[in-house]
Design goal:
The protein has about 400 residues and is mainly α. Helices cover about 65% and strands about 0% of the residues. It starts with a helix and ends in a 20-residue tail after the last helix.
Amino acid sequence: MYRTRAWIHADTTGGVLLMIAAVVALGWANSPWRESYHDLLSVVVGPASLGLDLSLAHWAADGLLAVFFFVVGVELKQEFVAGDLRNPRSAGVPIAAAVGGMVVPALVYVAIVGGLEPEALRGWATPTATDIAFALGVLALFGRGLPVALRVFLMTLAVVDDLLGIIVIATVYTDSIDARMLGAGLACVVVFGVAVRARRARWWVLLPLAVLAWGFVHASGVHSTVAGVLLGFTVPAIARAGEKQPRTERFGARITPYSTAVCLPLFAFASAGVTVVGSGHIVQPVSVGVFFALVVGKVVGVMATVWIVTRLTPLRLPDAIGIRDLLPVGLLTGIGFTVALLIAELSFAPGAGLSPDHEPAAKIGILAGSLIAAVLGALMLRRDARRVRSSDENRDGIPDQDTRVI
């Protein structure tokens, strides 16, 4: 049991399981039995009286992914209150890099797609996301010998990236809002926040409140993953009387195995199965735009932003990290996958009046771009690890103190 728990919590596990699920889905969706794959995902389950008669594909995107975003919310709360995001000076560079790593890919996508298929510009946010599980998994596998600070830098960048992605989902891809339902959902979040701060947080109280918050937010028209993040934000990040660790860490440790081993792989299985056999989805403006935005736009955005802020502002790279490390990190941020697939589904939903080819094309671009970004990132990590490092990599005039390696 201990070994199983340790394996699930390892950085590499999430990436491996996501990759297996995506390969299985892609293989099934392009096999002679591909109709059975699409039929399976279109099966509707849930109570119609509550408006929750959703297909399995919708349950994966709206339900299972909310669990993942709860974990993201908990991690964000911990980082903002007691982690690396607490100090603006040390967190400034990765935060700026996250912004640049979203803006430039969006511009690359617009530049490629805008003149050819203007109606597909709705998908501009698709290549802006970074998959935390995949990126950290590749770093753990191929970044051996590199400073531990590089993992913290990538984690901070990816967490901020996800937070900005959540804001985009909540503002850009919400067409109409039922104010009463949203108010009820927020009320449930507030009650959850009170209950989770009680002297003893009871799961049989918290779980129904979380489900109610999710259901009301879903019914309001706002994507239900936002409920997951808001619920995560309410969890206390400082140890209370008699506790050995903050509840953010404890909740994260308990829920991460379900998110890593169940929720994310099932979402990947439901989203990555794009049928390309006998179709023209592979090469078209949307897929090309997403591909180059992930592989090129992310790297340029991250590296250019860091170069600018470290030269024009007092901000500096964290201890033991140099400009040379930003190429592999920039490539790893090009692994879009989970959140990118979600945004692609929201961008090119059937009711948006767009071509039905756009969504599968975007997913092909995500899968191809994420794969190439991961391979190139792994190669650059190994190259970086073999090079001799300076005693002052971040060039702040102070010898590096934390030289621990991955």
